[in-house]
């Protein structure tokens, strides 16, 4: 269980209490996922006592029925949550002097409210890098969920390809994808706004989808993902609608070669920078280096972007169990854009993608609306 690792960290680092405030991190440790908006939702973990979840009263029942087997305490909107948390802590332990908090998440206002209950305590412990490091290595259960999310992304590509017609807007195609994901796959949330870009719009990596209409003989780029049991997918494909020009075909094949080279090269023991260079060198040698304007990839898990960052200059050593994207792109302003992306897990046998939609250039026939 992920929570054991945190309790061990408290003991090893002479910390008494960890207060987790990021709902994603709480879900990572407890299996209970909830968005509290402005209300108070925290997980308290102790060196020498049982942990508890503190949540708005209206969420107590669902928390108790979740994967979380520990205590759940609720508060009414009319009550004073921070005093209640302090009382509960003092019931459980006398060790309340050294605290670790999520510095990248806890708002100053909430931090001060908790600190005022324990004015003499030291709140200098930082959980952010600790949690980031734990989340780098995925368990087999987490990898299954990432594969499930990948299968939904593969389905979404098919919906997208089937809905390309002359004159439909990027937003129409994106809407069809989101709708069919909900309707046929029971997907509650995409992991980010579904991206569909036709023609020169694809040269702006994160633009759209816009009201731009698909025209014959242009490339259409899809970048999409879903949330599946709390884990994200993220994948990109680029297809030709009608006959591609020689230029379109050329940059597509260079990008595909670069992506394939990186997938085949990925091995435990190599650095993130070395892996980035594998794909980047293919694109540079073909003369398009200045059009590959982002890192090769990013980690994926409960968040669409997490560690490791697969970027030039990052000497971080890749290891089995790490999950990340491999997504080289070539973006020529006013001409076209291509990106091919798969997320996967690094194993001792190499990189195992979570998405499997074919990457040979797909040429879709022209169709009227
Ligand atoms: Mn990505």
Structure description:
The mean pLDDT is 97. The relative contact order is 0.11. It contains ten helices and 19 strands. The strands form six sheets. The protein has a six-stranded mixed beta sheet with strand order 4-3-2-1-5-6, sandwiched between helices. A four-stranded mixed beta sheet has the order 7-8-11-19. It is elongated. The chain has two domains: 2-135, 3-Layer(aba) Sandwich (Creatine Amidinohydrolase, Chain A, domain 1), CATH 3.40.350; 137-364, Alpha-Beta Complex (Creatine Amidinohydrolase). The longest helix has 23 residues, at 140-162. Helix 7 packs across helix 8 (170-185) and helix 9 packs antiparallel against helix 10. It has 369 residues and is an alpha+beta fold. Bound molecules: manganese (II) ion.
Entry keywords:
Creatine Amidinohydrolase, Chain A, domain 1; 369 residues; 2 domains; alpha+beta; binds manganese (II) ion; 10 helices; Creatine Amidinohydrolase; elongated; 6-stranded mixed β-sheet
Task: Give the secondary structure arrangement, pairings included.
Blueprint: H1 2-12, E1 17-20, H2 23-30, E2 42-46, E3 52-56, H3 60-64, E4 71-75, H4 81-92, E5 98-101, H5 108-117, E6 122-126, H6 128-136, H7 140-162, H8 170-185, E7 195-198, E8 218-224, E9 227-228, E10 231-232, E11 235-241, H9 246-265, H10 272-285, E12 297-299, E13 306-310, E14 323-326, E15 329-332, E16 336-339, E17 342-347, E18 350-353, E19 363-364
Parallel strand pairs: 1-5, 3-4, 5-6, 11-19
Antiparallel strand pairs: 1-2, 2-3, 7-8, 8-11, 9-10, 12-13, 14-17, 15-16, 17-18
Helix pairs in contact: 7-8, 9-10
Bound molecules: manganese (II) ion (MN).
């Amino acid at each position: 269980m992920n929570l054991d690792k945190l309790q061990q960290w408290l003991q090893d680092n002479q910390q008494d209490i960890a207060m987790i405030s990021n709902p994603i991190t709480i879900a990572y440790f407890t299996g209970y996922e909830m968005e509290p908006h402005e209300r108070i939702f925290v997980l308290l973990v102790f060196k020498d006592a049982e942990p508890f979840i503190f949540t708005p009263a209206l969420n107590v029942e669902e928390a108790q029925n979740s994967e979380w087997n520990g205590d759940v305490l609720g508060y009414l909107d009319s009550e004073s949550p921070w005093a209640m948390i302090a009382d509960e802590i003092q019931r459980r332990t006398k060790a309340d002097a050294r605290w670790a908090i999520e510095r990248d998440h806890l708002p100053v206002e909430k931090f001060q409210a908790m600190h005022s209950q324990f004015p003499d305590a030291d709140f200098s412990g930082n959980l952010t890098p600790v949690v980031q490091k734990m989340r780098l290595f995925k368990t087999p259960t987490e990898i299954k969920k990432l594969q499930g999310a990948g299968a939904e992304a593969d389905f979404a590509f098919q919906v997208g390809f089937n809905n390309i017609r002359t004159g439909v807007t990027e937003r129409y195609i994106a809407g069809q994808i989101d709708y069919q994901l909900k309707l046929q796959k029971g997907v509650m949330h995409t992991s980010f706004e579904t991206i569909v870009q036709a023609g020169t719009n694809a040269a702006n990596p994160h633009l759209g989808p816009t009201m731009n209409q698909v025209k014959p003989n242009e490339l259409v780029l899809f970048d999409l993902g879903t949330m599946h049991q709390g884990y994200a997918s993220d994948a990109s494909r680029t297809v030709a609608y009608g006959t591609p020009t020689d230029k379109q075909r050329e940059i597509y094949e260079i990008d595909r070669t670069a992506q394939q080279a990186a997938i085949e090269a990925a091995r435990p023991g190599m650095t993130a920078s070395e892996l980035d260079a594998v794909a980047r060198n293919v694109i540079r040698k073909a003369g398009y280096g200045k059009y590959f304007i982002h890192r090769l990839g990013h980690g994926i898990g409960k968040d669409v972007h997490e560690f490791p960052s697969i970027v030039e200059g990052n000497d971080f050593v890749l290891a089995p169990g790490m999950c990340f994207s491999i997504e080289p792109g070539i973006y020529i302003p006013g001409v076209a854009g291509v990106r091919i992306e798969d997320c996967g897990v690094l194993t001792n046998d190499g990189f195992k993608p979570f998405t499997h939609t074919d990457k040979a250039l797909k040429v879709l026939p022209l169709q009227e609306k």
